[in-house]
């Protein structure tokens, strides 16, 4: 036993008090090291488990009328050249019983317009391009449109990721109603804005 500043300190008592604390800290550190490292998937930034629902059988699809300028709603697509402008035709928006959001997208590049009629499955993160047009001509159906994955890094179609991630799909990848999509597009803070 030693005396310091009027207090008796037992080295053994101090050691017995600190040892369980050190053992606990060491066990916690070792447990943390044994956990697998989780990397954020760039194609799944929301972090949802990819338990995609089995898609419903697709219903009949009718081609819409060509879009009118007064019905176009601009939406930003980050990382694209400033000469590219992307619009959704608000009149074309629909949500079918098959849970497919259908829409017309207009891609304007310095006055040259490409117009696509597409469908988006939020639950499976897939799209299908049904028809195309140039300018304000009638739509021409694609021969056999296939469902394809919406990829974040797909050249030329990043806009589909933007639509899936922040415009047309809600929590847990549920499709939104057309009125909700229009509200998101009309929000001055940009599509998909949320206070979180």
What would the CATH topology of one domain be?
Answer: Lipocalin
| Secondary-structure element order, N to C | EEHEEEEEEEEHH
User: Kindly, what is the distance between the CA atoms of the first and last residues, rounded to a whole number of angstroms?
Assistant: 58 Å
Give the overall average pLDDT.
79
Determine the number of helices (DSSP H or I, runs of at least 4 residues).
3
Helix content: 10-25%
Largest sheet data: 8 strands, antiparallel
Low-pLDDT segments, ≥5 res: 29-41, 48-52
Radius of gyration: 27 Å
CATH architecture of one domain: Beta Barrel
> What is the β-strand count?
10
User: What portion of the residues fall into strands of 2 or more residues?
Assistant: 25-35%
Structural class: alpha+beta
CATH class of one domain: Mainly Beta
Jot down its keywords.
196 residues, alpha+beta, Lipocalin, eight-stranded antiparallel β-sheet, two-stranded antiparallel ribbon, 3 helices, elongated
Overview of the molecule:
With 196 residues, the protein is of the alpha+beta class. It has a domain at 69-186: Lipocalin (Beta Barrel), CATH 2.40.128. It contains 3 helices and 10 strands, in the order E-E-H-E-E-E-E-E-E-E-E-H-H. The chain has helices spanning 11-34, 158-167, 178-186; strands at residues 2-4, 7-9, 72-75, 84-89, 94-95, 100-109, 112-121, 126-134, 140-141, 148-149. Strands 3, 4, 5, 6, 7, 8, 9 and 10 form an 8-stranded antiparallel sheet that branches. Strand 6 and strand 7 form a beta hairpin. It is elongated, with a radius of gyration of 27 Å. Residues 29-41 and 48-52 have low confidence and may be disordered.
